[in-house]
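Aim 2, interim progress. The first record below pairs a target sequence with its structure tokens.
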Amino acid sequence: MSSPLALAFDCGTQSMRAILFDKLGNITGMATEQYPPCSSPQFGWAEQEASVFGEALFRASSALREKCADIWDGIKAVSLTAIRDTYVCVDKNMEPVRPVIMWHDQREAECSDPIPAGSAMAFQLVGMSDFVDQQRKISKSNWIRENEPENWNRTAMYLPFSAYMTYLLTGEPVDSVASQAGHVPFDFKNKRWMDTGNIKYPIFAIEPEKLPKLVEPCERLGTISAAASARTGIPEGTPVIAAGSDKGCGTLGTGCISSNVASINFGTAASIQLVTPRYVEPQQFLPAYPSVIPKFYTPEVQVYRGYWMLNWFIGEFAQEEKRLAGQEGIAVEDYLNRWLADTPPGADGLMLQPYWGAELRMPEARGSMIGFNDHHTKKHIYRAIVEGINFDLMRGLKTMEQRSGLKATQLAVSGGGSRSDVLCQLAADMFGLPLKRVQTHETSGLGCAIAAFIGVGEFKGFAEAIKSMVHYKDTFRPDPEKQRIYAGLYDRIYKRIYPRLQLLYKEMKRL
């Protein structure tokens, strides 16, 4: 018999990863399946066939079994983590009704029908009317109901992506409480679906019977079904344990169980989270999400486009550098990160606000770059992008600290950008905090595996599991002089940009 293993599925935006972890946090095997590109029936739309995800899950698991046949019998539990705010419409036979609308899809509903007068009045009294209008418009369930009523009527269940993946593994449409972080009628404070009488319920108005059963993280969602066993190679009856969303599992995978550690994610959507036993909205009207740690919350601020902006920059300005990186056999991001050594902190006075995508708290905002002069090059623009993402994450952390009374004394990093020493050091300098990096950048999978092991009793609790499975291998300490420069730029310029441009953004949107 092999040593105990947890099989974690990380169901991402672009790929499916099946990862085996042992109890020391080591990856003992991994298989990755890339999805084909999303389809875009109209500009800004992003859809994917649900079957793409299922087939990728089955192929990844089968490929991993072939690689790890000698230790496969050590699997004690399976868990999964998935992208957020992505839902699958299924009919009464659990067959997908339409392609999946992805989280980064930019379509909006018109929402011409008013919400009930009582709710509308309550929202107006607390200054939430504009926020609620925007939430209604970007909720994909409202768009489907409005534009494809026949599909909505055929929809027996409106499943979070994680619940649909769980159904493929267990035959049961069940989900983790800690996977809820999207546009559905979920009561984040009480960690349950909203009652239909809740004043916020009409924002989404999804029929209660269309939503899945929820269980607490680290509890059993079900077991591997016979059908799933035949497709994945995982033994029938293997427990499937509830974990949480990709960001939540990533925070756990960096060892964040203390409120003085901020988890920063350098992903497609960059984010910063705290972990707290108290429900604290990270910003006005924005909920704190359920943590993978039961009875805890993870208030979060997100830069919606985040490190996607580097892909935008590469596509628009760095095709030659991409070719040169290919000749050297390195990633184009590694090639571009060399530029950070050629430009000073503050990019010689060039500053960027990274609102390239919709911002929930300020839907009229647009991206901006200020401070151009004739000696700026695309190297400065690249640096300004990276610094702009971090400046906005700094703004988010400061806001959460003010609202919660907590104070972060260190950072823990995850996401694709965490592979870069240069990006990690720059973040440490900007935040003025030591930044720690764990033994793997597969932190979402690691957090998922921690939940799985706890769920089957391999660890007594999170402290024991993290001590065994999370190991800090690098610490980046801030440079005091650079931190002084960044603190001045943030206080005297960055945080004043949006208030100065807000009226112009609103006028631009109106025009």
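The second target in this work package is listed in the same format:
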Amino acid sequence: MMGGATEHDEAMRWFLRRAQGGDILVLRASGEDGYNNYMYSELGVDVNSVETIVCHNANSANEPYIHNRIANAEGIWFAGGDQWDYVSFWRGTRIDSLVNIALHERNIVIGGTSAGMAILGGFYFSAQNGTVTSEEALANPYDMLVTVDSTHFLEVDYLEDVVTDTHYDNPVRKGRHLTFMARILTDYGVAPNGIACNEYTAVCINDSGQARVYGDYPNYQEAAFFIQTNCELENFQPETCAAGQPLEWNLDSAALRVCKVWGTNNGANTFDLTDWESDSGGVWENWSVNDQNVIEVAGTQVNCDSVSSSVSSPLVPNSVELLKAYPNPFNPSTTIAFELRRSAEARLVVYDVLGREVARLFDGHLMAGRHDVTWDGSSYSTGLYLIELTVGGQRTVTKALLLK
């Protein structure tokens, strides 16, 4: 994931090596084929091919040639531009389905810069009504420009509950990003995480959830930011997140816990996305929103394990590491995967789009760790289903599409 300016060469070499000599596909909605020579010959990493496809409208989603190239790519890169083009052209089409199949069945490498990074989170700012500044978002979290979406799109491991943002050197970004997180918490009942990059910074996440940060620090202030709701608080909901009112998310200046990780040329500094606590080379801060300003003060490393089991918070932050269904779309069955940080009582239920319970897949005690539950949809109607995992007081929802 790149912050939106010139790509960091070492980070891009990391990306290309993950393709293991295969074919690289660049998808974009504007621009030219400048990535072709850069990836194929300028970085010194052997790959079989690099091809750029520019999709000018939604009709591109129906092109068999693009379907074929996705199905045969070992790496896919989303360029910058306007993320609403990507969302409106590809969401709910054969393109995003094929990309998700490539991710989960062939373990391809995926990445993007600017708008291409914006679409990688399970939650995303769609920019459906245009971009938004921090000033606008903080003044009214429900401004028509604050389009925070969770409609099923890309399914990237470790990013299921993440909303990203880029160009973080720009002061108009942080406030809007925290507003996105406040909206997710308020609207969806999910304790969100945020990942953001300064413009010349890259975050590279491996199969084990280790995020390596590339940049040119200390020559430049290039960093990535890993932001989470403060799990050490009994109630980490915003004081005010309502239409027509400024966002207030202060909580004694400790509403959010942030690990700022400096990006180096060798990517030596890391952050662990499996626990959202462990880091190497990071600096911890407390962030909050007060009087329409983002306040940043020095903090200490977060410790979610310090939270008492008797806490009666409406949400248990970060108790669920992931919730996904694969393959998705599916026919006739899909596997629902999730991971618990602690042993807990858990309930896994499937609902139709009218909110009617159609299947209860599990209801009982589970140990910490990864769990996989199969749902056989052969006796159900074609359509979209909501899969809800309840752990303690936390509800996490994902979507699955049954096709026949």
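Residues 174-188 form the longest helix (15 residues). This observation will shape the mutagenesis plan for the next reporting period.
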